[in-house]
Write a structure and sequence with these properties.
- By secondary structure, the protein is an alpha/beta fold.
- The protein is built from 16 helices and 19 strands.
- A seven-stranded mixed beta sheet has the order 9-8-11-10-12-13-14, with helices on both faces. Strands 2-1-5-6-7 form a five-stranded parallel beta sheet, with helices on both faces.
- α15 links the parallel β18 and β19.
- α13 runs parallel beside α14.
- The C terminus is likely disordered.
Length: about 450
């Protein structure tokens, strides 16, 4: 497969929506609205012989009636009509995104239809994403084929994390959470039943994509194990790759089969493949989001030695336990470093690891503690526990931490549990690109994920 053969999906000059409708709430109409809302700069061609105008744009009776080349045809028609729609696209399009369901996930007849569209695509050299998928949300080219309204599922701003997912709902839910956290996205691909384009194709493209700094993958099944390992390894050598394999056990495997028609396969084989490829394996949706938040904002850690800085002793102790249980090291301070801290801190502060600044913490003292500890060779990553209760913490707290983190060049994870006041203040960290985790477990897991990618990224 030629990697450049996918370029047009991520930088299209034109898009045709086959099955376009002026009816509000119809999938095709939502896609048109999404393209407009995203500011897609290319040409948009509604296609449906029933209408002359859709959403203020000329509606064409067929793709053949469009007097321009079309990069992508989005097929929003019933499953039974999809083969003919793909045939009529002919050689006029480079690729098709088939968003509708009713294919291999539904049984024998659906599988037959999917085989038919696969044969048509090969015969006409059309690359196909789907069927049974959301398609692409691309913050770089501003292509948005997701058929869920933007007021219900928020689209993230431009970032460097890319997500590829067999499941559309999984991808958009994670995307919605990341948007709420201020984490940016480069590209999101939902490829569904993968009649043609699959995770291996996407990894090959993203490995050489300058807009992508890290990749998160949701997997139900992989048909070409050797191809996947080769592509994932090539990608992981250049940028972190994290992956969640679902359908690992009986009930999940059955659900995956009914979802996309996937055959889940032996979980042990996937674990071995991830390890061989240098892919960091994730464990469930929460872990997936934690990994996306971490790599959506931070670089990998060069090791697994963590320093914890807190203004609450109990929270620091719990976090230290959690970190060690997950495989992070929480080493005690070097004698010389301990003396340095004791020289600048009040005597009731605890110069240990965790470093406890107590309820007398201030913005400046937090920043000094971070600078003194993380800038040494003893630690690879810092977890800052931000309990917003102490009056010495102001709106300048997040900026002070972000400034030191930037100058040191090592990842800083923020753990900030709490209620309404804390949640509002945590937006200050998000503003500076520091991911915030509301629980010690989430923060520790993010630090683990960052440390596990240390060997597969050129910056670490």
């Amino acid at each position: 497969m030629n990697v450049k053969g996918l370029d047009f999906f991520f930088n299209p000059a034109s898009v045709a929506i086959v099955g376009a409708s002026p009816a509000q709430g119809k999938i095709s109409n939502i896609i048109i609205q999404s393209l407009k809302a995203s500011g897609f700069p290319g040409a948009i061609y509604p296609v449906n012989p029933k209408y002359a105008v859709v959403e203020g744009m000329e509606c064409y009776p067929s793709i053949a009636a469009i007097n321009e080349e079309v990069d992508i045809a989005i097929l929003a028609v019933p499953a039974a009509s999809t083969p003919d729609a793909l045939k009529h696209a002919g050689s006029r399009v480079k690729g098709a995104i088939i968003v509708g369901g009713g294919f291999s996930e539904t049984g024998q007849e659906g599988a037959r239809l999917q085989e038919e569209i696969t044969a048509i695509a090969r015969e006409r050299s059309i690359r196909v994403i789907g069927p049974n998928c959301m398609g692409i949300y691309d913050a770089v080219s501003r292509l948005d084929t997701f058929f869920l309204p933007p007021d219900r599922i928020k689209r993230p701003a431009k970032g460097t994390l890319s997500i590829i997912s067999q499941s559309g709902s999984f991808a958009v839910t994670a995307m919605d959470e990341l948007a709420a956290e201020g984490i940016g996205i480069a590209r999101v691909v939902s490829y569904g039943n993968k009649a043609d384009v699959n995770e291996t194709d996407c990894l090959r493209f993203l490995a050489v994509d300058e807009e992508t700094g890290a990749v998160a993958v949701y997997i139900e099944s992989i048909e070409d194990g050797a191809g996947f390992v080769e592509a994932a390894r090539a990608c992981a050598l250049k940028k972190p790759v994290i992956a969640l394999k679902v359908g690992r056990y009986g009930a999940g495997a059955s659900a995956a089969r009914s979802h996309t028609g996937a055959i889940a396969g032996r979980y042990e084989a996937y674990r071995a493949a991830f390890k061989k490829a240098g892919v960091v394996e994730l464990d469930g949706y929460e872990d997936f989001v934690n990994g996306c938040k971490a790599f959506g904002s931070l670089r990998p850690a060069s090791g697994n030695r963590a320093v914890i800085i807190t203004d609450g002793g109990g929270m620091g102790v719990d976090l230290a336990d959690t970190c060690q249980a997950m495989g992070l090291k929480v080493p005690q301070l070097d004698v010389a470093l301990k003396r340095e801290l004791e020289a600048i801190f009040p005597p009731f502060f605890i110069a240990s690891n965790p470093v406890d600044l107590t309820g007398s913490a201030t913005d400046k003292l937090y920043a000094e503690a971070l600078k003194k500890t993380l800038s040494t060779n003893f630690f690879d990553i810092a977890i800052v526990v931000a309990l917003w209760g102490p009056p010495g913490l102001t709106d300048g707290f997040a900026g002070a931490i972000a400034s030191k983190a930037s100058s040191i060049g090592k990842p800083v994870v923020v753990c900030a549990p709490g209620g309404a006041w804390s949640r509002e203040k945590n937006r200050l960290f998000m503003k500076y690109g520091l991911p915030v985790f509301p629980t010690p477990g989430g923060a520790a897991r993010a630090a683990v994920i960052l440390s596990k990618a240390k060997g597969v990224h050129g910056q670490s």
